[in-house]
Amino acid sequence: MSDFVKVYTSEDMKPENIGKNPLTFVDFWATWCGPCRMMAPIVEELASETPGVVFAKVDVDENPEVAMGLGISSIPTLMLFKDGQVVERVIGVTPKEELKKLIEKHR
């Protein structure tokens, strides 16, 4: 994990915690997921280029209650939270430019 992307647990994903940051981008993934591994460098790169946004990863195998609570049934699922509320959800491998546009839309 880089300095740009934090590892979040179910505790970090509680509304009172995730709402502390104006914008939080979360990558829901699992170690066995090939497409998730394809997204990892894209998310890392985006995080290094996007100041003012918190980037995090949640391993759905280690935090199943978070995945269930957010209705995640496919991974990778990428979610953007604004003031603690989900404002964007993308499923599958997604180009960096598309993710950038989603983030900029909510700044």
Fourth-tier CATH superfamily name? Glutaredoxin
Shape estimate: globular
- Mean pLDDT value: 95
The fraction of residues in strands falls at 25-35%
**Low-confidence parts:** none
Q: CA-to-CA gap between the ends?
A: 25 Å
What does the model show?
This protein has 107 residues and is of the alpha/beta class. 34% of the residues lie in helices and 27% in strands. It contains four helices and five strands. The protein has a five-stranded mixed β-sheet with strand order 1-3-2-4-5, with helices on one face. The chain starts with a strand and ends with a helix. The model has no long low-confidence stretch (mean pLDDT 95).
Briefly say what this structure is.
This protein is an alpha/beta fold. The protein is 34% helix and 27% strand.
Summarize the helices and strands and which ones pair or pack.
Elements: E1 5-7, H1 15-18, E2 23-29, H2 34-49, E3 54-59, H3 64-69, E4 77-82, E5 85-91, H4 96-105
Parallel strand pairs: 1-3, 2-3
Antiparallel strand pairs: 2-4, 4-5
List the keywords.
107 residues, Glutaredoxin, 4 helices, 27% strand
